[in-house]
Amino acid sequence: MREYDVIIVGAGMAGLRAAVGTVKRGLKVAVITKVHPLRSHSVAASGGINAVLPQNGEAHQPSDSIEQHYRDTLECGYNLSEPEAVEILVSRAPGMIREMERWGCLFSREKDDRIAVRNMGGATFPRTVYASDKTGHAMMNTLYEQCVRLRQNKPDQLRFFEEWFVTKLLVLNNTVAGVVALEIATGKMEIFSAKSVIWATGGSGRIYGSTSNPLTNSGWGLAVPLYAGAALMDIEFVQFHPTQLSGTHILITEAARGEGAVLLNLKGERFLGSYEDSKRNMELSSRDIVSRNIRREILAGRGVNATCVHLDMQGIGSRNIKKRLPGVRELCKTYANLDPVRQLIPVTPGQHYTIGGIHTNEKAETGINGFFAAGECACAGIHGANRMGGNSLLETLVFGEIASSGVAEYISQKHGRIPNKQYFENAFEDEKNKICALLERNGKTRPAEIRDRMQAAMDEFAGIYRDGMGLVEAGKIIKELKNTYRDDLGVDGKELRVNYGLIDAIELRGSLDIADIIIQAALKRNESIGVHFRNDFPSRKSRPRHSLVRLQKGKIRIHYLPVRDKKNLFDLLPSVWKTKK
Amino acid sequence: MKEKYYKIAVFRFDPLKDTAHRFDHYTVPASKANTVLDALIYIRDYIDGTLAFRASCRQGRCGSCAMHINGRYGLACEVRLVPGQNRVRPLGQMPIIKDLMVDMERFWEKYEAIKPYLVRRSNEAAQTYANRRKIEKTVDCILCGACFSACMMTGMNSGFHGPAAFVVMNRFLLDERDALRDQRLEIVKGENGVFRCHSMYNCNEACPKNIKPAENILEIKKNID
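YS: structure for the whole thing
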């Protein structure tokens, strides 16, 4: 058994920021991650990170303000956001950028040396800080570098367990006790006991087929805490990004439209102008609107090859593409054999971001003592019913840090009781037997077959447009697939060591459960709001409410919570934050 | 003419069980696979779940799936399958864990040895436009290990830092804010340092991100009297 103050599960941007935060607070930290930290999907984030930067005493855009960032976020989220969490997010943003810059992050700059900002959908002013179109890569390297530095200076305090796969979260008397994990290379399973656990496992996009998420984002990251008693909030809200390279899982960043790219239909018209909701902001309307209208255009027979529309970047100019969007150009060349400097890019909406997640408050606390969650896997209600581009990277940093301070406070209050040895031994045996039992499965259905059918059902019935009949149908399919998983699953390898087939099988159980929950929650929400659009209930209800899902004796239970009211929030703020008149 | 199937020979070796490696031959439907990684995923999903390889982002950004493909190094997710025979084997110079998965510990050790982090000289100095432009050419490195694997010197000398570590070092040497310049140069002066590089340019050839590590190494050499 290994003992730590804090265990951080996941080493993307939220996990690494939490690692830095907890080590700096003097805690003994283990980071457990399925892949090497620099292989985490945060490296693929391209567009940028939102922050209203006061530079030389002035906001970058003189009329912009933190208050405006707050309003934009709320508006983009259709007022389903938690105002308190959003306030924390936007007000801590400039500090986070300064900190990243101090640590060496190479943000793109203006010729006068100020940090450059760009446009993103839903933002009133350009305020998205970026590093060409490889912002995630730049920030992840910086964070990992800081971790290496801390580890070299304080080797006893920080340890990475790379390519360890967490199979269970241990919770006793509603207090977190640790995790059980499997070392992929050796097949060794071990108990990690901890006073506190920070969960930072990222998105769950692989429940859908049409996703730009990596192979690792299976939904297991949400399933493990769910099995341990955590609640999931707003899980039916799944964001589809408007511009995924057609026929692939490659995302063309929103920054392309921020820099001036336009969307064209078969006839070469900028069709967004003919829809009421995207008339005003055109390509820079929020993501849910653009995705819906692209789909509408295709359904109306004005799509290219009946499957996609065109993204036209030629207006940006060859020089600016090379300078600000080199990654887009590389991706187009590699995966579509085309050069966006001269050619149109075929794009179609694809699953992009899991807005819902583990229910947390604005302190990153969950309902379980000592258990914190940050980043895409968490849901503090920041993004409401639709996430604004550039806010997710911001969330990982801000809430990675908030979780760190929360953990330090929690541990200092000596809440962190450690259960006795017998408890851990029993939990370990139990988990090991469960995993080994999977190895014995000799059914005829491969995990991938079940996964493919699940993804197809989710794409068809739980995507951009949903309706009651389709969701019921999807629910039936998932139920059948769960039965197949239970009765007829076959796993190829028969040992724990380097067995990715086994890991796929383990994760698939989580994927199916999360898929089921998304469907049930979507079915129960009889309204259309943000990314959740029901053809059979096209208008929204007057009072915004969050859904909250828990498992009780294996059954899905859905409750609703009102959004907290805090309308006059900004009257309380110091005047420097307000718009300068 | 459009292929209906692709053929791929995949390196298989389990050091705990096998005495020698072998190549297993697979046929993958063209409708299911465009890139080499698609084919490997198809094999693991539908033919043999025990095939071991690393992969994550599927779009050339995470660096997990570097391997030796059809005669040269590359990212499996970026290299398209070719008609006729495809052939993949793992990265070289590193011990094999299983099949296409290698133990990259030495690679990361060398990366960490060059102190890959900024220690600023002054608290206030911010990055400048001009300085960032200078550094730009080094920042696309995704630490996939292809150059390390292609380098003759890392193969012959276990102490040699290897091209990727030098690219990262050059990133910090070029940064005007960096306070560790002297320490860094001390690290690369020694016998396992930059002068062990004989400019064979295998690293330039191997880099899937067109970084040109050899040029970075030359630049570092110029810093040393």
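YS: worth flagging: The mean pLDDT of chain A is 93.
IM: good catch. Also Chain A touches chain B through 57 residues (CB under 8 Å).
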